Amino acid sequence: MNGTIELAAVDGVGGAESAGCTPMAGDPDPLARAFAAVAGGDLEALAGVFDACADDLFGLALWRTGSREDAADAVQEVFIRLARSGRRLAGVHKPRAYLLAMVHRAAVDILRRRRRTVEATDALLEPTAAGYEDRADASRLSALLRRLPAAQREAVWLRHFAELTFAEIGEATGVPVFTAASRYRLGIRRLRRLLGVEP
After folding, report:
1. pLDDT of the residue at 122
2. Which of 4, 96, 170, 197 is disulfide-compatible with 177, CB 3.0–4.6 A?
3. Rg of the Cα atoms in the chain
4. Residue 127 forms beta bridges with which residues?
5. Which of 116, 181, 194, 196 lies closest to 151, judged by CA?
6. Burial grade of 105 (CB within 10 A; 0-12, 13-18, 19 or more)
7. DSSP 3-state helix, strand, coil percentages of the chain (rounded to 5)?
8. Cα 119 off chain centre by
9. Nearest Cα to 180, choosing from 191, 65, 102, 172?
């Protein structure tokens, strides 16, 4: 994002950097398989859903709320709802988009309930290298990202780190495609201004 170092979205759930729900070795789509098992009534398959997508869900919730604690609460809420949904999940054709929409709603609900003004200090970005300059850049970018409105910050995360299309971002956040694209573009433009890249 800043042209000098590679930065990764922080996940905080499984400890690995996430760029999407990634298949496990030998399984082309572990999320779809585990999700179908949960829809069939197998609650033990929730572990497979968690393994396949928890980092993405946590990442989106973190970028929406700015707080690791709130993000973890949002992910937990999603899995509680999944456990209660049972066979109603059988009609879901895009599990990843469905789960991202669930965590988006859970994060928004948490923010509405808490309405906190406490300044968040959790990093939104971490450097992939361990040098001091890299950490300083990641810290600076995290601070600048916090200055974006939550909806714009969320759109930037979904586009760059979850690699969703604008249609998928709209579906996950419950807004029209145009609004999703507009939030992203406004967020990037504002971030570029904050970075001094454009006037």
Report:
1. 54
2. 170
3. 17
4. 7
5. 181
6. middle
7. 65, 5, 30
8. 20
9. 172
Instruction: For the chain, give the percent of residues with pLDDT over 70.
Output: 72
Task: Look at residues 78, 68, 82, 116 and name the one whose alpha carbon lies nearest to residue 100.
Answer: 78
Please give the Cα distance from 74 to 70 (Å, whole number).
6
Domains and CATH numbers, the chain: 7-145 (1.10.1740.10)
pTM check: above 0.90: no
User: 3-class DSSP state for residue 125?
Assistant: strand
Q: Report, as an integer, the average pLDDT of 71-79.
A: 93
Residues in the chain: 199
Beta strand 7-9 with 125-127: parallel, antiparallel or unpaired? Answer: antiparallel
Residue 97 above 80 pLDDT? yes
d(CA 55, CA 16): 8
The mean per-residue pLDDT over the stretch 80-90 comes to 86
Which H or E element spans position 162? none
Range 171-183 average pLDDT: 91
Backbone angles phi, psi at 47, to 5 degrees: -60, -40
